[in-house]
């Protein structure tokens, strides 16, 4: 029997492909799967929110906890709107409760690891760390780091991985969020170097444009993007 798990999908920056990575992980996970977005910003400009993208691509269940208008960091957007948003601890409690009823709960962060999710300074890193402490023994926490393919990714990815390890969290592996159709020298070298410099497996390489596929195409193609077997079955 598969052990239940909560998977925090974080990134080295904004726009690295976290949403499509969360969708690919959801599409290939077995059993009852839920994708959660604790905080979504920018809804005034982009009604096609991250959870709706995941729902469209996979058909999996989704939940969004907090939504803010401006396309900014959550704490900044909340301050501009003059609203107080839930603290990270409240998100932890909700995710823990949801894990009782799902085999896999995927939690997509916002931007990078140190982005503040609340107006009290709580970050994506704090969320992952608190989940590790709060989840029951029969629920495993995994952290997946989504990174870019091009120049700069080695530095950004190492910084993210080192920050997780400094908090006592060993990532499950890396996902390249958008692989170009015609990779250059930097991309090809980075694909080899990312596992070497981080000591982590490269779990998946997602092709550029994967988010434009329809559901049937996405679900059929997703297993082929994973370069190593993960705890999907």
TrEMBL record:
It comes from the Bacteria. Keywords: ATP-binding, Biotin biosynthesis, Cytoplasm, Ligase, Magnesium, Metal-binding, Nucleotide-binding. CDD domains: DTBS. The keyword Magnesium applies. Gene3D superfamilies: P-loop containing nucleotide triphosphate hydrolases. Substrate binds at residue 41. SUPFAM superfamilies: P-loop containing nucleoside triphosphate hydrolases. Homodimer. This is ATP-dependent dethiobiotin synthetase BioD.
């Amino acid at each position: 029997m598969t052990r239940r798990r909560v998977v925090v999908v974080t990134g080295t920056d904004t726009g690295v492909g976290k949403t499509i990575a969360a969708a690919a992980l959801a599409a290939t996970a077995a059993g009852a799967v839920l994708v959660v977005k604790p905080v979504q910003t920018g809804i005034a400009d982009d009604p096609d929110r991250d959870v709706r993208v995941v729902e469209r691509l996979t058909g999996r269940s989704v939940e969004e906890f907090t939504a803010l208008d401006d396309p900014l960091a959550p704490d900044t957007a909340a301050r501009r709107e003059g609203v107080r948003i839930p603290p990270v601890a409240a998100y932890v409690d909700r995710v823990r409760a949801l894990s009782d009823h799902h085999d896999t709960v995927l939690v997509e962060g916002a931007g990078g690891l140190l982005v503040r999710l609340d107006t009290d300074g709580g970050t994506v890193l704090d969320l992952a760390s608190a989940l590790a402490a709060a989840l029951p023994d029969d629920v495993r926490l995994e952290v997946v780091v989504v990174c870019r393919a091009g120049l700069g990714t080695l530095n950004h990815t190492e910084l993210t991985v080192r920050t997780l390890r400094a908090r006592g969290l060993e990532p499950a592996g890396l996902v390249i969020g958008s692989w170009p159709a015609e990779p250059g020298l930097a991309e090809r070298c980075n694909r080899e170097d990312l596992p070497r410099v981080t000591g982590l497996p490269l779990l998946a390489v997602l092709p550029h444009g994967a988010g434009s596929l329809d559901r049937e195409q996405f679900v059929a193609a997703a297993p082929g993007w994973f370069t190593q077997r993960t705890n999907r079955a």
